[in-house]
Amino acid sequence: MGQLHLLEDFRPGKGGGPRRSQRAVYFNRSELTQLLSVYSRRVMTGEWRDYAIDHQPGIAMFSIFRHTHDQPLFSIAKRANGSSKPGKEFDYAVYSGRQQLARSGKLAEALRVFERKLQVVS
């Protein structure tokens, strides 16, 4: 019979196991719906063409690309902030490169940076 190996033994952290202070963070269904709604509107205008979702200890990232092989134009991060209060466990930030454009405890508020400003047309 083969030998059983736990993936936990091969992950980084103290003693080979995962760090307890940094739990896995993922986007839930309603967050993905909000993200893909903003993304799809910009895809329709031809501004954006690709996205990627990345999960690391303590953070989940939704990155938006103009072209598949470019650097991301924007990244939306969901970070665990260590709070135990319901609804306050995470905060959201929107980045363009290294510049932070918005930060909020609610995803909808952070995504407001992508709302179009109305202009007067003569």
Total E-strand runs: 5
Per DSSP, what share of the residues sits in E-state strands of 2 or more residues? 25-35%
The main sheet orders its strands as 1-2-3-4-5
Order of helices and strands: HEEEEEH
Helix count from the secondary structure assignment: 2
Please tell me how large the radius of gyration is. Answer: 18 Å
Determine the N-to-C terminus distance: 78 Å
Shape: globular
Structural class: alpha+beta
The biggest beta sheet is recorded as: 5 strands, antiparallel
Q: Unreliable segments (pLDDT under 50, ≥5 consecutive)?
A: none
Fraction of residues in helix: 10-25%
What oligomeric arrangement do these chains adopt?
Answer: single chain
Mean pLDDT: 84
Tell me what the structure shows.
The protein is 16% helix and 28% strand. It is of the alpha+beta class. The longest helix is centred in the N-terminal third of the chain and has 16 residues, at 29-44. The radius of gyration is 18 Å and the shape is globular. The relative contact order is 0.12.
